[in-house]
UniProtKB/TrEMBL annotation:
Pfam families: BON (PF04972). It comes from Nostoc sphaeroides CCNUC1. Residues 53-122 form the BON domain. PROSITE patterns: BON. Residues 16-41 have a biased composition (Polar residues). Residues 11-46 are annotated as: Disordered. This is BON domain-containing protein.
Length: 122
């Protein structure tokens, strides 16, 4: 079972990307503003297909882990996010694997930090 399936209960969407091109989102028009105003999605809220997703960064990190054959067998670690910080929590087999996960997570657009305080080795 892959990271996306285990953590978010979803299969990889066909057009999913680790670093997708953001889509513009229309602002809710008020009576005094033009309906053509758009706003860009913050990188940490960018979903797998470029859409707005509150957990977008965590999902894209999970997808990046799915795409790395060295990380596909770790099923005792969870990925979350607090703003633009990726949070890794749980247990990993070795420091080498944790270092690889941190490196992969940092390479995902929108990740400004990786918190491993809740991850243990063993």
């Amino acid at each position: 079972m892959g990271w996306l399936q285990r953590l978010f209960g979803m299969e990889k969407p066909q057009n999913a990307e680790v670093n997708p091109t953001p889509q513009s989102i229309a602002q809710t028009p008020s009576t005094n503003t033009a309906p053509t105003a758009t706003q860009s999605i913050p990188p940490e809220r960018l979903g797998l297909s470029g859409e707005y997703d509150q957990s977008g960064l965590a999902k894209r990190v999970a997808l990046a882990f799915d795409q790395d054959p060295q990380l596909d067998d770790v099923n005792t670690l969870w990925v979350a996010q607090t703003g633009s910080t990726v949070v890794l929590k749980g247990k990993v087999p070795s420091q080498e694997i944790l270092n690889k996960m941190v490196s992969v997570a940092r390479s995902v657009n929108g990740a400004t930090d990786v918190d491993t305080n809740q991850a243990t080795i063993g």
